[in-house]
Amino acid sequence: MSLHRTRLIAALDTPSYDQASHWASELEGRVDAIKLGLEFTYACGLDAVKKLSARQELFLDLKLHDIPNTVASGLKALTPIHPALMTIHALGGPEMISRSRAVLEESFREQAKRPRLLAVTVLTSMSEKCLAEVGINATPLEEVVRLGRMAIRAGADGLVCSAHELVALREALGDGPELIVPGIRPAGSSTDDQKRIMTPSQAAQAGADWIVVGRPITRAENPAAAAQAIQDELRAVTA
Ligand SMILES: O=C(O)c1cc(=O)[nH]c(=O)n1[C@@H]1O[C@H](COP(=O)(O)O)[C@@H](O)[C@H]1O
Hints:
The chain is an alpha/beta fold. It is globular, with a radius of gyration of 17 Å. About 40% of the residues are buried. Bound molecules: orotidine-5'-monophosphate. Orotidine-5'-monophosphate binds next to strand 8 and helix 10. Orotidine-5'-monophosphate (OMP) binds next to strand 8 and helix 10.
């Protein structure tokens, strides 16, 4: 496995434009991208998403999951925002994924500028017990690899998974798919609602392309210093 630089995405989860804007400026140059998701987008709207992401690479994490036509049309409506990364749920199935990929390809003449389509496999807040409660009798690892193979075959550019599944996904799918990893907790920090967690350096060693970190940065006394400490930890892995 090649050890490449793992990039850091800060999840700016807040309903307040001023708070998100403050974090974005504080973190500029210290993180590789910002993530705006359901909380910020529902509270502040898409114009605010566009404005806030004007200066930084954007992961727009809206985790679409509906019938193929609705998801593909929803993604098309989001293309003027021009995120670098967008999410849909792998559980929507292969037709939903392939139509999503097709609509993004049609919307961007230059494919290099097309947002990368990420399929969320098994949420990092879910354990084996929780999977059983929704009727899936498999370990998170088995389910992530199964969904991951299907999603990449159907046209996803990458997958959202926990760090625990990285090695198995690389073995199954090679270096091609972009692997994005939330559920990251620096040593000693609170796990919150996350179940399948690892530290930044463990995720980097296991081959994450990007790690997503929210509360350990945004709830730190000094978010910029917290982000810098994570970058230092990531760099130490590849040094
Ligand atoms: O798609 C995601 O980004 C995502 C998928 C997943 O399985 N688990 C997960 O935590 N996330 C997101 O990653 C961020 C993690 O935030 P913290 O737990 O505060 O670090 C949140 O914004 C979640 O919405």
